[in-house]
Predict the 3D structure of the following.
Amino acid sequence: MNDTHDPDWLHQGLDHIWLPYAQMKTAGLPLPVVETRGARLILADGRELIDGCASWWTACHGYNHPHIIDAIQRQAARMPHVMSGGLANEPAYTLAHRLAALLPGDLNRVFFAESGSVSVEIAMKMALQYWINKGEQGRSKFASFQHGYHGDTLGAMSVCDPEEGMHHMFKGALQEQHILEIPGDEESRKNLDDFLAHHKNQLAAVMVEPLVQAAGGFKFHDEDTLRFIREATQRHDVLLIFDEIMTGFGRTGTLFACQAADVVPDIITLSKALAGGVLPLSATIPSDRVTDAFLSDSDEAAFMHGPTFMGNPLACAAAHASLDLFETEPRLEQVAAIESHLNKTLSKVRDINSVVDVRVRGAIGVIQLSEIDDLDWLKTQFVDRGVFIRPLGDVIYLTPAFTIGEDELSQLTDAVIDVTREWSRR
Ligand SMILES: *Cc1c(COP(=O)(O)O)cnc(C)c1O
């Protein structure tokens, strides 16, 4: 890439900013973005890249959707923020009401925070206290699944895949949880059932990303598997948490992934696309069964938790605008169209020998390679083709904005196919 076009702030800041998931000593320069437009990133030197990952799966309506920008501007002029202790703000209260109506079953009471990891921490703490409030001792452990990812804070890390979450490095500091195989076949189903029967008295909850386990390798499971997990946790009376931080808001084809399987968890977590991809916001939403255990005449049963920016009115206004767009624009139809485009195009690389698997679900397209040993080569190849795609683990994936144009989507899939072919020829 051409250094001479890099802006001064990039080099000045690089010595002072901590980069995500990177060995900073050797990491390549990040691409300086100065503007966004629809599904495009505009770089400092004027180049435009079509964004294949919608900024970590947040920008479901593309960037800069005027309806969202307008809502934020109006809210900012009126009231950017007030605390939630003792004060109520309309965007947060109406958003809680609106989310409860959209969510299936009796997921009715919304706890707002500002990031996905924090919403997972809150879900875990809620599950722990649920059993304490119920008078059941010793329900202090969680079970989750291989290839799962639930965030980077300590509690969330403890339920991530042990490899991805680097459990070995933090041994002793992390709570040891039970990480199980996804019950996709008869044998693993029996194992899960036996495990729950055996350990239920120590378990607060089981946690899973429904249908698509994203950051831990983009593994898919089907509706039957999800239904089995729901039935097994019910049978053994263990709470079930769905982490829909990635899958929520249309990504897998239905507004929430759990709706495809027609199951309702005891607690759901949402974030990423919740505020249309423009502001940080998350929500932890328990069912009435869980909430009821916190309602009591004694203060002791109360949930002692309240993030500083809880229910931030700006973020909630953005979330309202995002939900408006799901109502007024054909988002789920767009997801279906992306799904069929991805199915048609990505299958072309299925027979290449370095390709292990090609899978598509909703607006998620995945090419799994036998291994990715030269990430920088891949990234450069993509940028050279005018697209921003960030491989992860052993997969190249596409999770574009739902509003992406047909031509832009073709440019993304053409690039992926082309680069995958080049990769196996290297
Ligand atoms: C991204 C993600 C998280 C963590 O969210 P942050 O906002 O990055 O803390 C948790 N769970 C899932 C499924 C995610 O995709």
User: Anything to note?
Assistant: The chain has two domains: 1-52, 66-325. The radius of gyration is 22 Å. Residues 42 and 92 are 33 Å apart (CA to CA). The mean pLDDT is 97.
